[in-house]
Amino acid sequence: MMGVLQQQEAGVMSGGDLNGGLGMTQMLLQQAMMINGMTLPVIAVAAGMWWRWQRAVVMSKSKLRGSSGFPLLGETMAYMSQMGSPLANFVDNKAKRYGKLFKTHLFFQPTVIAAEEEEVRMIVQKEGKLFDVNYPTSFANLLGPYNGLNIVGHMWKRMRRFIVANVLKPELLRERVNFIEDMVIEALSSWEGRTVFVEDEARALAFHVTALIVLNIHPGELNDKIKEDMYILIKGMFFLPIDLPWTAYGKGMRARERVVKTLTDYLESRPVKDDIYDKFIQTIREDSPEDTEEMLRGQGRDLLTGLLFAGHDTTAATMVFTVKYVGENPHVLAEIRKEHENVIKLKQPGERLTWEDCKAMSFTQDVITETLRLCNVSTTTFRKSLEDVHVGGKLVIPKGWMVLPYFRSVHYDPTFYPDPYKFNPWRYKEAGTKLPFFGFGGGARLCPGSELARTEICILLHHLVTKFDSWEFIGKDIPSFFPFPRLSKRLPIRVKPRQKTVK
Ligand code: HEM
């Protein structure tokens, strides 16, 4: 059968061959190609100039002040080296100089940092509309390309819905409270008469809880193997992606290979199927029938790795700093103890702590909020502007830039938190729910694990304050806050057993 082009050619040719046998279409095509040959580079150059001009217009309108540092690397090294300091850091210093919305250059990208409450709120609330997540490449490489923090749009919504409905649903978590309490009781049973490193205990506790919820595995050899490799993997996430045997990132990549292997072996041989992994794979198989089995398995594995990361080190760091702040403030310890002893008084002998008990202990919840405000497990998050974003009628965040809503600045802002460096859980009672709090993020990506984390910390505090009178800190720990809040000595303490019983 004659093609359309040939048919046209035949028609034209039959009307008269003016070009020595070339059909009209062919001639036009040839001319177009000649023109393209000449004009494509011109168009490309013109488009480039237009884009640069547009950018120049945006930048002149943008009016953002700031500095860019070295070519490519920008101010990344200064940012990373200062972010760990408990004192004024990179953002504080720049904000003082350039205002609370300023430009810089980080992780090879032009960047805007927002340190004012209004802009921070706007950025997290406009998720998917004006901004999308933009975590560093190292996150995707180490947690897997499909992990929840690196995906956007439909894939992310599908994963989030699944997590909220199947992994972190209150009804399911309620059933885990006894397990968490058993773990806490067992851990604390060996604390008397020795120096306890709270960070080690908290990390083990939080990992065991997350592993049970996510992988359905109990403490043991498999658990320890994944835990050790996850620590190395997580450390690598916060360094430049230079894959060499001696870099933290390189070590993280090898740890990822081991985690993937351990998980794959476990998933193939696990006794009980129909767990989170299977349910998730089934969900995406129905939703995206075109995905290959390998892709489905990859997405399932990345869901698990992402949850193992999101769930344990964050909670562990908060536990460590709660023990520190409560121990340093005897009046807080006394108040919190009163609240927990009241719960015990209302219970029958042997009756256990519940999810509802933890939610109802408002002072304890305020202690957790105040701990997160001060130690800022998540100092910021990573976003990218999807269009030129006009801010306050004066400034413009240019399209495609990395945007960091800086939670820590809001948490230390004395207009909201007078005497901001003071640990004062009572401030929430006085101010009600009006205080801006981004300890668990905000907007559509608000942490879905916040209730679980709060419950774990509440149960730890319950047994800590009812079993021990107080705890003494051994030596001086130096805090640092990047990438996670840490204490130089891992918070060594010695507990003093409780003299008085409650009932
Ligand atoms: C004190 C402990 C925790 C803190 C401080 C914390 C903090 C956060 C923050 C700030 C975000 C938002 C990130 C963003 O906007 O880019 C987030 C997201 C997330 N968190 Fe948590 N988290 C904690 C515990 C947990 C736990 C226990 C789990 C589950 C086991 C969990 C699972 C997640 C997940 C899946 C996301 C991603 C949500 C999404 O992208 O839609 N987190 N967390």
Automatic annotation (TrEMBL):
<keyword id="KW-0560">Oxidoreductase</keyword>
<keyword id="KW-0503">Monooxygenase</keyword>
<protein>
    <recommendedName>
        <fullName>Cytochrome P450</fullName>
    </recommendedName>
</protein>
<dbReference type="InterPro" id="IPR017972">
    <property type="entry name" value="Cyt_P450_CS"/>
</dbReference>
<keyword id="KW-0349">Heme</keyword>
<keyword id="KW-0408">Iron</keyword>
<dbReference type="Pfam" id="PF00067">
    <property type="entry name" value="p450"/>
</dbReference>
<keyword id="KW-0812">Transmembrane</keyword>
<dbReference type="InterPro" id="IPR036396">
    <property type="entry name" value="Cyt_P450_sf"/>
</dbReference>
<dbReference type="InterPro" id="IPR002401">
    <property type="entry name" value="Cyt_P450_E_grp-I"/>
</dbReference>
<dbReference type="InterPro" id="IPR001128">
    <property type="entry name" value="Cyt_P450"/>
</dbReference>
<keyword id="KW-0443">Lipid metabolism</keyword>
<comment type="similarity">
    <text>Belongs to the cytochrome P450 family.</text>
</comment>
<keyword id="KW-0444">Lipid biosynthesis</keyword>
<keyword id="KW-1133">Transmembrane helix</keyword>
<keyword id="KW-0479">Metal-binding</keyword>
<keyword id="KW-0472">Membrane</keyword>
<feature type="transmembrane region" description="Helical">
    <location>
        <begin position="32"/>
        <end position="53"/>
    </location>
</feature>
<keyword id="KW-0752">Steroid biosynthesis</keyword>
